[in-house]
């Protein structure tokens, strides 16, 4: 671990970012350029003290999970992320396999989407980031482990949860879309990849998946008009638009309702309900 290289790199990258680059308000006038240390810590989901010690060459070796969070918070490119890992004394992540490092270009667009559900997913359907409205509409899928990270697994193995967001008459179409998307990822990544392991697990556990897999349909189906179900506000009709990275390894999904429609009002209501729950959680007594 090169503590000096790590500290200088973190400081320089922090100084080069402005609050607007990461979706933060500039607020009052700043005495120093760039982001504050506490803002980087907040974005990376770590304590300010921990991040400060890294910049001051006093911290312990950060884990790969911490480095991944820092790379995302500082909007690093793939080359910059690799340098960060090397400076911290870790092997560089393989760029061929799916990565949880969000492409900076997608992240910048995502940061500006506050009034409509939006999320970024990997080629295997893993949710990498999602805003509060997306979590309210589709469920909070961040932080899942193992095969549960992947939407096709949840769709076929945990249908009581995954399919509750969709009308029953849309389940068959969505099943085909899930398998066609996984077939596309499998073709690009190969049988010895994470896609291959996911296909093997689903083939072992789901008869429905096995039957659809044999159809050999291949497509990445995102742009769509669909109805989503919410237990409190009811059905919401949305259009799903997608923005891919150049290698199509990640996709930004944006769900919008028709302007001045009842569905648009329901999405606004989701935002209000989410804020009320957040305040209620803050008032709840701690164990």
TrEMBL record:
GO molecular function, one term: DNA binding
Domain HTH cro/C1-type: 30-81
Keywords for this protein: DNA-binding
InterPro entries: Cro/C1-type_HTH, Lambda_DNA-bd_dom_sf, MLTR_LBD
Record keyword NAD present: no
Keyword Transport recorded: no
Record-linked PROSITE patterns: HTH_CROC1
PANTHER family, per database record: BLL4672 PROTEIN, BLL4672 PROTEIN-RELATED
Stated name of the protein: DNA-binding protein
Organism: Microbacterium murale
């Amino acid at each position: 671990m090169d503590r000096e290289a790590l500290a200088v790199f973190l400081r320089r990258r922090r100084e080069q970012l402005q609050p607007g680059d990461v979706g933060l308000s500039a607020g009052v006038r700043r005495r120093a350029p760039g982001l504050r240390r506490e803002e980087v810590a907040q974005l990376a989901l770590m304590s300010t003290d921990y991040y400060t010690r890294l910049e001051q060459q006093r911290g312990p070796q950060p884990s790969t999970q911490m480095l991944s969070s820092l790379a995302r918070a500082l909007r690093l490119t793939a080359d910059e992320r690799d340098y960060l890992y090397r400076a911290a004394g870790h092997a560089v992540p393989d760029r061929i396999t799916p990565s949880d490092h969000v492409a900076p270009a997608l992240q910048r667009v995502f940061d500006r989407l506050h009034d409509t559900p939006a999320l970024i997913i990997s080629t295997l359907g893993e949710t990498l980031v999602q805003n509060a409205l997306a979590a309210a509409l589709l469920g909070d899928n961040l932080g899942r482990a193992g095969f549960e990270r992947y939407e096709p697994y949840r769709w076929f193995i945990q249908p009581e949860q995954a399919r509750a967001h969709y009308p029953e008459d849309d389940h068959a179409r969505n099943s085909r879309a899930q398998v066609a998307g996984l077939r596309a990822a499998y073709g690009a990544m190969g049988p010895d990849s994470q896609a291959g392991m996911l296909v093997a697990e689903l083939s072992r556990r789901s008869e429905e998946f096995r039957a659809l897999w044999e159809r050999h349909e291949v497509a990445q189906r995102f742009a769509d008009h669909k109805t989503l179900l919410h237990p409190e506000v009811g059905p919401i009709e949305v259009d799903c638009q997608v923005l891919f990275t150049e290698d199509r390894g990640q996709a930004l999904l944006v769900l919008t309702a028709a302007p001045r429609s009842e569905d648009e009002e329901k999405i606004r209501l989701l935002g209000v309900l989410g804020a009320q729950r957040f305040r209620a959680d803050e008032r709840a007594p701690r164990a």
